[in-house]
Amino acid sequence: MCVIGIMLIPQVYALDPLERVPIEFPRLVNAFNSPVSENVNVNQQVQIASEVTNKQGTIQDFVYIVQIRNEDNIIVSLGWSTGTLQPSQTFSQARSWTPDSPGTYTADIFVWKSFSEPEALSEGKTIKITVS
């Protein structure tokens, strides 16, 4: 008698907690999703955009957070949006910002599970922005 065993191996998803919903392609765009240089003008509205992808085999709720810091490291803007990603789904996220004074700014981008469960789902990303 011959016995043949079959073992099913599940698809491997993100194992590292900070790789569950990675932030990819952080960039500045205008309202029409066209690229904008990292040198912008005072009162020019820009979008801090990224792609986020659920690298897990389960549905994932998330909050996309963008904070803008000035050259003195003071937060001058904080915005967020929430959503839900299906397994392996990629979604484009963006938060708008209109600078009101010249200077050098840093946009910090985060993806967390939620505000009630502030667990990072990705490494944070940054964009330097020069406003004149």
Descriptive overview:
The model has no long low-confidence stretch (mean pLDDT 90). This protein has strands at residues 23-29, 39-40, 46-53, 60-69, 75-85, 90-97, 103-112, 125-131. The protein is built from no helices and eight strands. The protein is mostly beta strands. The chain has a five-stranded mixed β-sheet, with no helix packed on it.
The H-and-E topology, N to C, reads as EEEEEEEE
Identify low-pLDDT runs. none
Number of strands: 8
Helix content: under 10%
Mean pLDDT: 90
Tally of helical runs? 0
Largest sheet: 5 strands, mixed
The coarse overall form would be elongated
Main-sheet strand order equals: 2-8-7-4-5
Q: Please identify the structural class as seen in this structure.
A: mainly beta
Radius of gyration: 19 Å
Share of β-strand residues: over 45%
Determine the N-to-C terminus distance.
Answer: 81 Å
Give the arrangement of secondary structure elements:
Elements (H helix, E strand, L loop, with lengths): L22 E7 L9 E2 L5 E8 L6 E10 L5 E11 L4 E8 L5 E10 L12 E7 L1
Parallel strand pairs: 2-8
Antiparallel strand pairs: 1-3, 3-6, 4-5, 4-7, 7-8
